[in-house]
Amino acid sequence: MPGIVRKNFDSADETRPFEDGKGRLDLVNTDKGPVGRAVFEPGWQWSKHIKPIAGTDSCEASHAAYVISGRMKVVMNDGSEGDVGPGDYFSVEPGHDAWVVGDEPCVVVDWAGFANYAAPAGSAS
């Protein structure tokens, strides 16, 4: 195994588009597991643009992520909520909705929750 592995999201192993052209997930596969970069366009909301793909009532992925740019609001099924923005690391447990806040795309890198994100129903959300 080489001491340095380099992958570039612009040459992702897989790209998954979101509904209505509201963004995409670029996924790179590593020996330590998949890492994803998602671009959530203004107007994107999980319940509108991923729910039809995932087939679950809320996002059932657990996220460990870093926000590169833009802002997002996350609301848990129990009603607790929080906003994340540039420079923030955040973790979110399964059972939530989320949406872009403002007019700038929200770009997020996630090490935990994007393996099956935006994959067809039955794969996870």
TrEMBL record:
One Pfam family matching this protein: Cupin_2
InterPro entries for the chain = Cupin_2, RmlC-like_jellyroll, RmlC_Cupin_sf
**What SUPFAM superfamilies does the record point to?**
RmlC-like cupins
What's the protein called, per UniProt? Cupin
Organism of origin is Streptomyces lavendofoliae
* Taxonomic classification: Bacteria, Bacillati, Actinomycetota, Actinomycetes, Kitasatosporales
Task: Indicate the segments annotated as coiled coil, or none if absent.
Answer: none
Span of domain Cupin type-2 = 62-110
